[in-house]
Design brief:
The protein is α/β, with parallel strands linked by helices. It has one domain. Helices cover 29% and strands 13% of the residues. It is built from 3 helices and 3 strands. A 3-stranded parallel β-sheet has the order 2-1-3. α2 runs parallel beside α3. The longest helix has 11 residues.
Length: 95
């Protein structure tokens, strides 16, 4: 399992959490350290995570708009082609 922090979060959070989970063969990564880079659009990093074979991924974001924009919301849903490696976790479904 891996944990992804997007650009709305501090890289320090990812680095600190990584220190706690790496001994369990898990990892925490900030977008700035990922191949897509810090300036990737939401749809770009969502697609990148879906295509990787080292999931599942837990996504941590401070961007409340990600669940309000239909393209991002659709991309975050579990799809058969991603084999459940990426999923949306929300307390409330966005309208």
């Amino acid at each position: 399992m891996n944990i992804f922090f997007d650009n709305c979060t501090s890289p320090t959070l990812a680095a600190t959490l990584n220190g706690f989970v790496q001994y369990l063969a898990h990892g925490a990564f900030h977008i700035k350290d990922m191949p897509c880079g810090r300036h990737a659009l939401d749809l770009e990093w969502i697609q990148m995570l879906a295509e990787r074979d080292d999931g599942p991924w837990i996504i941590i974001t401070g961007d409340g708009r990600i669940l309000k924009n239909k393209p991002e919301r659709t991309a975050l849903r579990v799809r058969p082609e991603t084999s459940g490696r990426i999923a949306e976790f929300s307390e409330h479904e966005a309208d």
